[in-house]
Design a protein that fits this description.
about 200 residues, alpha+beta, about 15% strand, 7 helices, NADH Oxidase, 5-stranded antiparallel β-sheet
């Protein structure tokens, strides 16, 4: 029978927006689970361009406080800012946050080392980000830890760099707050398969 375990795992991964701190998995285990997921995710020429910083406790809270402060000047009205603040506070209520980065120095070195593929390495680095982020997301979900993926970069890049001593070569690509699942994800809709897939195969004679 066809093994469907990976699809079952993928179905468990959802965007969870109501996150809490009732996490029973030890912090060190969470870090190792996520690190292992990133390590085993593919990167072009094994460049290992995906980097990550793990934030817990006051460091996690500081991330969302600095994000709120940075967005204050970007949101056009006080009413809109209060709605933004409510959203950011929901991330702050989580157990922790993983920051995903791209190692731009490695990308540039790959472009130099493999000039035939020079124009592809930036795209490949982005693909590596997607693979690693999904792998971590699924790994957390399999341990009953909810998460969502946020993109307040590049607005908060400089604040994050200063707050967490980020190496100059690391470029922030995403933020993943995670924690206990306080409310389930909503219903997910799917396009018909015929609108997304095409299959060619040999016709039997």
């Amino acid at each position: 029978m066809f093994n469907n375990q990976i699809v079952s795992a993928l179905k468990k991964r959802r965007s969870i927006y109501q996150l809490g701190r009732s996490v029973t998995t030890p912090t060190n285990d969470i870090v190792k689970i996520a690190q292992d997921a990133i390590i085993e995710s593919p990167t072009a020429f094994n460049g290992q361009t995906v980097k990550a910083i793990f934030l817990f406790d006051e460091h996690h809270e500081h991330l969302w406080d600095l994000t709120a402060e940075r967005l204050r000047s970007e949101v056009p009205s006080d009413e809109a800012y209060q709605a933004t603040l409510k959203k950011l506070n929901s991330f702050k209520a989580a157990f922790g946050t993983i920051l995903f980065f791209e190692d731009s120095a490695t990308v540039r070195q790959e472009e130099k080392d493999y000039p035939l593929y020079r124009d592809n390495f930036q795209d490949w680095a982005e693909q590596a980000q997607g693979g690693a982020q999904q792998a971590v997301w699924v790994a957390l979900a399999l341990n009953n830890i909810g998460a969502s993926l946020q993109h307040y970069n590049p607005l908060i890049d400089e604040q994050v760099r200063e707050a967490f001593a980020v190496p100059a070569e690391w470029v922030l690509r995403a933020e993943m707050p995670f924690g206990s699942i306080e409310a389930p994800a909503g219903e997910k809709s799917y396009l018909p398969r015929e609108e997304r897939f095409v299959v060619f195969q040999h016709k039997a004679v």
